[in-house]
Amino acid sequence: MTTVTDPTSVVGRARSPLRLALIVGALGVVFGDIGTSPIYTLQTVFDPNDPHPVPLTTDNLYGVVSLIVWSVTLIVTVTYVLLAMRMDNDGEGGIMALLTLLRRWAPRGRTRTVVFLSALAVLGAALFLGDSMITPAISVLSAVEGLKVSNPGLTEWVVPITAVILLVLFLLQKFGSAAVGRLFGPVMLLWFVVIAVLGIGGITQDPGILLALLPTYAIGFLVGHFQIAFFALAAVVLSVTGAEALYADMGHFGRRPISLGWLFLVFPACALSYLGQGALLLKDPKNLSAPFFLLAPGWGQFALVILATAATVIASQAVISGAFSVAAQASGLGYLPRLRVAHTSSSTHGQIYVPWINWFLMVSVITLVFAFRSSAALAFAYGMAVTGTITITTILFFYLARQRWTTPGWVLWGGAVVLVTVDLLFVAVNLTKFLHGAWLPLAIGLAAFTVMTTWQRGRQLITARRTQAEGSLVEFVQNLRTKPNLVDKVPGTAIFLNPGSATTPLALRANVEYNHVRHERVIILSVDVDTVPRLDEEDRFRVDDLGDPTDGILYVRTRFGYIETPDVPLALRSLPPEQSEGPLDLDNATYFLSKIELREGDSPGMARWRKRLFLAASHITADASNHFGLPRDRVIVMGSQIEL
Fold first, then answer.
1. Using one digit for the tens of pLDDT, what is the confidence trace for 100-158?
2. C-beta neighbour count of 443 within 10 angstroms
3. Is 472 in contact with 555 (CB distance < 8 Å)?
4. Residue 383's closest CA among 580, 526, 243?
5. Which of 24, 217, 272, 467 is most exposed, with minimal Cβ within 10 Å?
6. Cα atoms in the Cβ-side hemisphere of radius 13 Å centred on 524
7. How many whole angstroms from its chain centre is CA 109?
8. How far apart are CA 435 and CA 302, in angstroms?
9. Residue 390 half-sphere exposure, CB side, CA atoms within 13 Å?
10. Whole-angstrom Cα distance, residue 136 to residue 317?
């Protein structure tokens, strides 16, 4: 008898282990932040020290637990998992991916709309950077506070222990998360299993809490007790912190593993924990001191504190890595200075280390810990950045969906109205906490937004003035060809880095006009960062002989994706000899950089304070030799001055 094997089943079986590995890996990177929210969310809602306290009554408890479950359902499951993650930029997600899609897909004639939405996207990225300062502080602090439950005598040590843990975490960033990352997934898998089991144990004490799964309780609480429910939302939003990570890290694991991990493990585990804590509070309101940790029996509370601390460190790592990615992408797209980016893994492109961002975050996070001293105090500041980023992501998604999808307009408009209304409700309630800490992430976000937009505008002005100073490349080369006796040819290959093909590299112009020499082989090279994450090798180069294939002067344009390392010598080795008019002697080539010294001037285009901000930001720009992977012993820098 002949057996026929279904090829799809074979493929399915082959992919299953890989998909399972990706899901476990995603647990350690993607879900750390949102997966540790049950530690502090419900406790914060009923915090008696809140400026707008929510009374702990049976009706309020049912309403709050229902609000938490359905807020997570609408924002995380619907907005991100079911909708936003279907909008990707060559597999990459996140708000910067939406910005690049907006640039690519925006219809002509909608300039004002595109400018406004682009500004919103940059603001969303800036708010995410603010969130990356608060998340490590509140996450680790909330876990270490569990020591007060297992051993009240350690209360005074909570803040110092938290600061030490965070200090070590930031000091270890330069080594990368590749080795430790293999432990993240299993630890978070254990974490979700434990909080699910503890949640079920809590539910058994009062199974009636399961009624909170009905949306009628959330709606009834909002409609019938709006004056209470409105302020409760300021803490309920803590349950969705980390939602952006699901989207931002999509390029590392793919949409399907993240979706499966969320729907079948993370969401159920978090929901069970919230329900279990609710049942515990129904049984005895005194459990409000630490409902999450009190779900565990006395003998297991210290172990739970250790596991929670490990989980929050992982959550912090995920947010820090996200900040590195956002900063690197913003730099690649021209919204931040060129930053030094170190890739810490040879196999995983997403594992990067940005030193300047790391040290800035370290100082900021530890300062927040000592300034606020408790997770409850930090919670007042936490929600503002999260809700702002979520709202902007939702708006951008529906605008792009309207441009590209064939879904009927009334369906998209209906969905947009519902989801944006929910998001704006969270934004509005967090604004009521403005004087109690919500000003902090707004201030951080607005400061980052100002820096990013100022850098973009300053780059435009500098580029225009540099173009004027450099002059036409075509005319310069034609002049060389018509007057060959004016310059001497010296042996070797010279590579001049230049922004584009329209203008002459300042270093080349100076070499010809003042030294009266040129090399036998001259490569004028421009490096472009594309709005896609990665490029295939066949799309890497464009070569132009500038009208004469025999004089040894070539223009080469090389392109990199915005998450790739722009290693110029390595890229040039893959340039086909037939395109470069013969093999290049890259082992002995000399690289010329045109250094621009910026000075503040009276030219129009920017306010004086923005010029000073741009000049200050320019000092953190990474060295071009390191950034482009150039051999330092064969780099010559020639300078020029430009006034801003």
1. 888 888 777 667 888 899 999 999 888 888 888 888 888 888 888 888 877 787 778 88
2. 13
3. no
4. 243
5. 467
6. 24
7. 30
8. 36
9. 34
10. 8
